[in-house]
């Protein structure tokens, strides 16, 4: 009773603590530093239990702290973290704390609690995080030539919770020697003007520090593109386009587009020009000679070449300046000082009301104010007078053709001068000019396009006179009315392939073919071209003009422009390309100008063909065969093949294996085969090479021969050449004199660019065949006896008469056959080639033993059936024995056979 009362009074007072506490804890440690310190006081002291502090209680179970009593008597306590505290997840905590005394007895019964005090704890930061950049990489673009205040800003962040450790205090560019700087806020600027040509892209590394000097673990990459100042023009094209021969059409600018720098366009016009003028006469023309081309294009024969390659026979061009570029056919350059007189025997005499003059010409503007006439071709009086009968000249970029005819009829005014004014005459490029005269109409073709004269002047005709005329090239001959005859009105420019063709004018088709290009521009997939694009090619397909209003359609159209070369073996080398563009803008006075583009198509070296001719190299025939009607066939077993070596990359082979070279036979055309006589030239009296006219029928081939050999020419297949040359025969009128003859055959393609091997052939008659010939009645023997006595002379003459009569009889027979043959040909409607080659029919060519028997006649019939052409049936009887045109014979010493002596 008493005791219980006392006990109740023993714990009179509650513990006392401060009303609020402030604490600090560093993250990742467990001790809280409190201010003021945690101490609980109790006035019940020194009473046991009641005056002691037993516990501090924290209210709020989620709080990660606990309070412990360090000393119950003094009331000291401590605040600790129950686990690791992380500033980044929570920076501060607030909770309630109460102190408990130990109560009145050992069990802590009837203990008292202090009032509630607020505790506010701040978590102190540790610099545990490094800065990290927001982006994995940064990109920006600048225009060249400007200094920027700020190109772009990089930004790093730091996950630390305190301002000191989470703020970024510094950025730095770590790449060496870059024209950029960065400030403390991450702004990058350039320190100098950048140039697109010098460097199109920069890549720099940037790092960052927080304010606790912790550096970013990873730098960031910053890419800065330098854009060129927007210049209007074509973009996305290559300066050089390689062209592999035989691959057809190749797009030139597959990725090209026009940059207009935002300028609004209303229309654009683009001209693509393939400049082939530097190659021969343009368009890879050196591939075939003018003569072969005319044959290829089906031009009528009988044209006279006024500018042939100089040679012993054609020496009038020897004094002219030639410019035969690599591979190219001959080009003659006139600088206003050279001219050539055409020999009378070359000049076509029968120019009637129909004839054609054709030439390639390259000519620039004339110098000086009063430009002189510049003469290409002039036919004027040789002496006494100074009249121009016909001439072709250039005057102030006009082409003038003068034609003054002498008319025996009544004098009337007639067309005499025809004028054309054309840009082409002075544009310093090669053009093909053809003047077709069908008096009184004269038509000019330039590159296959027809032009009528803009002016025709009439004049009185020239009075007929007996004065000889002189034909000249490159100037006019002033023969009369001057103290000293001289050239005048010189030409300045280049000419090639100048021909006159009497009696026949060329068709438009032939003229187009003669100047047609085997290489040119093309549009890849025409049908896919937008309908709004207008386009136009020049006849040679070397210039293409495209026009359109929509820029995208225009870009698409230009991407389709292609180069094409249909030659099997084109001349390798560069073809220049120029693209010029003009644009119209909407309602603007000043519009952008688009710079021209110069590019080049590089035609690569084609696989070179190797032409191989094979056949017998020795030929032994009995003597009688040589004198027989047709002589002997020299190359009966001739074979001509052509091969190229190609690298064969076998499919599936190991990469280490080199490609095997494979010989592949190819088919292509030849353009001449020459049979040369080695050693002494042929004796024109007794020896000849002949080919039957019929052998050439239906082929693009022609033949000429001389005492030095025979040339078969024209662009035709190897098999055509094979067929014709197998029929070339060697004839010897006096086989007894034949010891041995040697011939050499060579063939060529592309004007001599590819030449075959040489096939040498030895021809002989065996000794034995001569012995049997004793006392054979050789028709010619009488000519060899000394006719001493009159009787003998009479016999000689008689023998001659017999020979002549027999010859004439045979001619008569032949002529009858010709007429028969021509009639059958007319019935069959065959049109035969009446080229210049005529057949040699020799009245002396008679069998040795007996006069012509019926049997022989039949044989002759069969043999000569093919030989006669419609051309020959026009000749009168005396003319049948026309020899093939002979070329002047050189001295016997000059055995090396001059190629040019064959009249091409």
TrEMBL record:
What InterPro entries does the record point to? Answer: Cadherin-like_dom (IPR002126), Cadherin-like_sf (IPR015919), CLSTN_C (IPR045588), ConA-like_dom_sf (IPR013320)
* Segments passing through the bilayer: 783-809
Provide this UniProt record's keywords sorted from A to Z.
Answer: Calcium, Cell adhesion, Cell membrane, Cell projection, Endoplasmic reticulum, Glycoprotein, Golgi apparatus, Membrane, Postsynaptic cell membrane, Repeat, Signal, Synapse, Transmembrane, Transmembrane helix
CDD domains, from UniProt? Cadherin_repeat (cd11304)
Q: Where is this region: Disordered?
A: 841-904
Q: Which domain of life is it from?
A: Eukaryota
Membrane disposition: Single-pass type I membrane protein
Which Pfam families has this protein been placed in?
Cadherin, CLSTN_C
Gene3D superfamilies reported for this sequence: 2.60.120.200, Cadherins (2.60.40.60)
What ranges does the record list as Acidic residues composition bias? 851-881
> What would you give as a GO molecular function for this chain, any one?
calcium ion binding
Instruction: Enumerate composition-biased segments (Basic and acidic residues).
Output: 886-904
Q: Which GO terms describe its cellular component?
A: cell surface; dendrite; endoplasmic reticulum membrane; Golgi membrane; postsynaptic membrane
Q: What is its main location?
A: other
Any one biological process term the GO annotation gives: positive regulation of synaptic transmission
PROSITE patterns, alphabetically?
CADHERIN_2
- Name where it's found: Cell projection, Dendrite; Endoplasmic reticulum membrane; Golgi apparatus membrane; Postsynaptic cell membrane
Presence of keyword Repeat: yes
Q: Where is the Cadherin domain?
A: 17-133, 134-234
- Protein family per UniProt: Belongs to the calsyntenin family.
The protein depicted here goes by the name Calsyntenin-2
Write the lineage as a comma-separated list.
Answer: Eukaryota, Metazoa, Chordata, Craniata, Vertebrata
